[in-house]
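Example (one chain per record):
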Amino acid sequence: MTGFRTDAERADVARVERLTRVTGFFNPDEVRIAAELVDERLTKGKASGYEFVFVDAPDGDELLAYSCYGPIDGTQRSWDLFWIAVQPHAQGRGLGREVLRETERRIALAGGGLVWVETGGKALYQPTRAFYERCGYVEEARLRDFYAPGDAKVVYLREIAASSD
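Predicted structure:
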C-alpha cells in the first residue's frame, strides 16, 4: 500500500510544476495552472475547491505522483478530476491506478458519486485515454477541435459508490 498525503505544503507548488513538466503531457500553460491550484489551496484552504492526493518518494525529496480534484459547483454528487500525474520513471507499476483509486475513495467519503475527467484527443494522449478506460471510465463526449484544430476534448465518466462510512 502506498503512503498518501493530502495536505498541500508550500514546496508542493514547485514539486507539482516539476512533475507536470517532466511528464511531457502538459503544455506550459497547463503546467503553470497545475502549480497555481496548489498555491490557491494553500491560500484559501478548503474554500479553494481543490483537494489533493500526493505520493512522495521515500526520501521525501521528490513528488512521485499526485492528483487534484474537487466538487463541481451546482451539482449534487459530481466531482472533477482536474489533474493526475506520475513521474515517468515511476510509471507502469500501478502507482497511477493507486492514486486514482485513493482519489475516488476520498470523493466517495465526501458523498460524491460521479467522477468526470477531461483529456485531449491527440495521439499523444492515447496512453492517457487507455489508462482511464482500464480504470473503468467510459467516454461520455468528444468535442472536436476543442483545444486546437485536430485536438478534441474527450470527457470520461466513472460512477462510484458513495461511502457509508
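Caption: The helical segments are 11-23, 28-44, 95-109, 126-134.
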